[in-house]
Amino acid sequence: MNQSAIPETSAATTPTAPYLRGLNDQQREAVETVDGPLLVLAGAGTGKTRVLTARIAHILVTRRAWPNQILAVTFTNKAAREMRDRVSRMIGGAAEGLWIGTFHAIATRMLRRHAEVVGLKSNFTILDQDDQIRLVKQIIEAEELDDKRWPARAVHAAIERFKDRGLTPDRIGVAEAGDIADGRIGEIYKLYQQRLIILNAADFGDLLLHCLTVFTAKPDVLAEYQRQFHYVLVDEYQDSNVSQYLWLRLLAQGRNNICCVGDDDQSIYSWRGAEVGNILRFEKDFDGARIIRLEQNYRSTQQILSAASHMIANNDGRLGKTLWTEAEEGDPLEVHAVWDGESEARFVGNEIETLQRSDTSLNEIAILVRASFQMREFEERLITLGVPYRVVGGPRFYERQEIRDAIAYLRVIAQPDDDLALERIINTPRRGLGAATIQTVYRHARAQEIPLYESARQLIETDEIKPQARSSLRKLIEMFDRWRFEAQVTDHVELAEAVLDESGYTGMWMASKAPDAPGRLENLKELVSALGEFESLAGFLEHISLVIDRDDAAAGELASLMTLHAAKGLEFDNVFLPGWEEEVFPNRRSVDDGGSAALEEERRLAYVGITRARRRVWISHASSRRVYNQWLACAPSRFIDELPEDLVEHVTEPGLSGGIPEPGMGALEVTWVESRTGRGPGYRRMKEGEPSAGGSPGGGEVINAGVIAIGDRVFHQKFGYGTVRSNDGGKLEIEFEKAGRKKVMESFVAPA
Ligand code: ATP
Ligand code: MG
Known about the structure:
Elements: H1 25-32, E1 38-42, H2 48-61, E2 70-73, H3 77-91, E3 99-101, H4 103-114, E4 125-126, H5 129-142, H6 152-164, H7 174-177, H8 185-198, E5 201-202, H9 204-217, H10 219-228, E6 231-234, H11 242-252, E7 258-262, H12 277-280, H13 282-285, E8 290-294, H14 302-312, E9 333-338, H15 341-357, E10 365-369, H16 375-385, E11 389-391, H17 401-414, H18 419-425, H19 435-448, H20 452-459, H21 467-489, H22 492-502, H23 505-511, H24 517-531, H25 537-549, E12 559-563, E13 572-577, H26 588-610, E14 613-622, E15 624-627, E16 630-633, H27 638-641, E17 648-652, E18 684-685, E19 713-716, E20 720-728, E21 731-736, E22 740-745, E23 749-751
Helix pairs in contact: 1-2, 2-3, 4-9, 5-6, 5-8, 9-10, 9-11, 14-26, 15-16, 17-18, 19-20, 20-21, 21-22
The structure holds adenosine-5'-triphosphate and magnesium ion.
């Protein structure tokens, strides 16, 4: 469609145009400045996304362009759907034909049209990550690279980073290659690309990279798009990577009508190649660019907005901005000190029930965690309470790949006839059991009408399977036999640790340099911790099957659970921010790897978290967490300390007030823990400055103060039976029969 076909009209720009109603002056200016490059640089909740949506409506209503002449890039498919719906409502008709979607979705659409330019067919497959890694692995083997030193995942991750930076294999010089894959990464990358083409497949990075190649190789194709897209709009620009930036710049060059909105304080994806530099450089990159700043926040109460602004001011590398609101002052942010993960989940569950009783919609409640492993305890609590919930932007904890794999191992131990479980892990991690071997095992199982496990056991005594594969299969069967024996005699938590270790499963993820690998390892640790909450392996597996198979409340209201990363752009009346402890948040691994820049990114995540809330924020931190079978003492996050005291109300769980380490101290690697036995159900609110409670505050039930003597045999909820060795003013040192020597509080043990 060509521009001259659109009748010019300005009728809809009257102040009464519904999509303009209620916008402030700067917002309105941003909506109406449609020609030329425009950057809307503004803090959270100032209406950037709303401006973008109104702008699309404005372009359509004023007939500056047809829907298919507008290209709008959002961060998620869901955001794209919402934007399309909102535009439809604003213009009072369907917004069909808009090119609106994520970078990946739109690039795929383009690439399918011009696939032949890069040697693909238009029906090319988009490989998932497992397949991508498998391919890299084959190449590493063929090239006889040392895969211990250069595991496929690490090499794959390096290739992904190149793609994020818009680098094709021919652009990998000595400097880029460094010592990756013994300096041969360029070659490997090239072979990988060749293999993808032969398979008629692309990976995620290719979607954009191939588009760039098409645009360069076929200037006429690029020119066609440049003619087509009169207006280009981008949300969350601060998290675009170089290849996305290059793609945008080429597409926008024709008309130069590009509008990017973003917030440097919310740049949280550098680990996936995002370049906050893109937003900082906008003026240089786009000639005649205008910058509009929005300063009025429409989302949050005054207290929430000030707390977030105050905290983010601790970052150095930022543009800095003023934010204000006309909203009510609101409640202070609540910072809750709790005992451990379980009591944190209980506290959040209780608050959610209270909110429900006051008619708060579950849709207005979100729990935002730093890392996915934190979800497990909340999911279990919500299921127990019967609160319907959804996990946004990822699978539920027990549906994660690594969790399902680990559980499959445990299932085969508990139940050798569980074919589905065995099938899942028979060659995960890879142990040289290829498709041919597995087929043989299947065939025999079917013919004999026996389970796979039994089939495998019989086959290893024959020559049906090639010697190498046979020996791997024998090792696997022997391992399972041994684990099954150990299951009778050792503790199930220890068993699980051993299984994950000896099977090579943990090793597989440890060797991986993929950005999500450390998160998966944390999830595995969390799984082992979860086992500790059950009497036996069988009890745990039964619990899992109930959790996994439960019916979803498909329709209706749902509480939301997600990572802080997935919460970008969203808003809720009530936001829970658990796990604000040094180690967890700021995430120690990130900070160790990335230093002060990484710490600033963690702080931006905290900023994103707080600014999701319209009305109320609950931050919580536990004083100890179980990691495997160990209890670690945790210090409150330094970010808590960065919140202005007058905007915060501290709430401490009974009995805890004396024992909270100072913020920012870092986790203490000690096992000095108190049992939960004596904890009462209530929480006691403590205003800052109030003397700490000590003793047995707030209804915490004291079981047996003062009656325990040295040499007594006692029982402790977490550590079991033990003998008291010393008593230092109520702090006992006990030699536990199973757990070894520990320090516990006298009030938490019972005479045995
Ligand atoms: P984020 O940085 O978190 O992505 P944002 O800048 O994109 O935030 P929006 O989500 O567009 O902000 O807007 C935040 C909230 O404020 C939304 O509920 C939006 O409808 C509302 N809002 C924005 N502008 C106005 C306005 N002029 N009048 C009333 N409400 C507004
Ligand atoms: Mg937004």
